[in-house]
Every structure is written in C-alpha cells, then in structure tokens.
Amino acid sequence: MRINLEPIGIIKKAGKCSEILIYSDFEQLVKNMMSKLSKNDDDQHNLVIIHKNKDPNDLHQVKVTKTHFIDRVGNILKVGKIDANDDSVIDVRLECNGFITSEA
C-alpha cells in the first residue's frame, strides 16, 4: 500500500547541520511549536521529524528522525545533522524533556 501525504516542508543539508524549510502555507505550525519552547536554557529541545524516505532499496515509505533543535529564522529550522537531503517533510514535533508536543 502506498500513502500519499502532502509535504509541509523540505530538508536541506547545510554544512555540519541541516535545515528544514517549512512551506509558507504551514508557517503557523512553526509559530505554534516555537511558542511551546521553554525560556529555560537548561531544557533540552529536540525535534521529531517524519519525512519521506528517498532510498529506493528500503521498503519503508517514511523515516522518523530525532535531532537537536538549534535555531529558527522565519520558517527555517536549523537542526543537528540529518541523514537526508531534499526529503519531503511530513510532520515536525517538538520534544521537551522527553515529551512530544501536539500541534494544538
């Protein structure tokens, strides 16, 4: 069975990091997620990213990747290195202190 999901963004390699460009139609998702960030610098902020798998030899259609959140500039999220380039992003969730946030 093949799934067909509308992507909300794309992953790009950027040196030692990766960047997730969220399409402007889904910019509210980024704003909602950033509003949930704690002001405490001691808190660990990770992102859980669901993205399409471009590897033709893998039977799985999507990958789930957990990476460290570094910075946000507009609708671009700078994150730790992800083993993906030009992969379509299906969903992004914020993990704060072990709990994954919802979109609401």
What are the main properties of this structure?
104 residues, mainly beta, six-stranded antiparallel beta barrel, 1 helix, globular
Architecture overview:
There is one protein chain. The chain starts with 8 loop residues before the first strand and ends with a strand. The longest helix has 9 residues, at 27-35. The mean pLDDT is 82. The chain has a six-stranded antiparallel β-barrel with strand order 1-2-5-4-3-6. The protein is built from one helix and seven strands, in the order ββαβββββ. Strand 6 (88-96) and strand 7 (99-100) form a beta hairpin. The protein is globular and about 40 Å long. The protein is mainly β and 104 residues long. The chain has one helix spanning 27-35, and strands spanning 9-14, 17-22, 45-52, 62-73, 76-79, 88-96, 99-100.
The pLDDT mean sits at 82
Proportion of beta-strand residues? over 45%
Which range best describes the helical content: under 10%, 10-25%, 25-40%, 40-55%, 55-70% or over 70%? Answer: under 10%
The N- and C-terminal alpha carbons lie at a distance of 29 Å
Count of helix runs: 1
Q: What is the subunit organization of this protein?
A: single chain
Global geometry: globular
- Give the structural class: mainly beta
Trace the largest sheet across and list its strands.
1-2-5-4-3-6
Question: Which spans have pLDDT < 50 for at least 5 consecutive residues?
Answer: none
Largest β-sheet summary: 6 strands, antiparallel, barrel
Extended strand count: 7
What is the ordering of alpha helices and beta strands?
EEHEEEEE
Whole-angstrom Rg: 13 Å
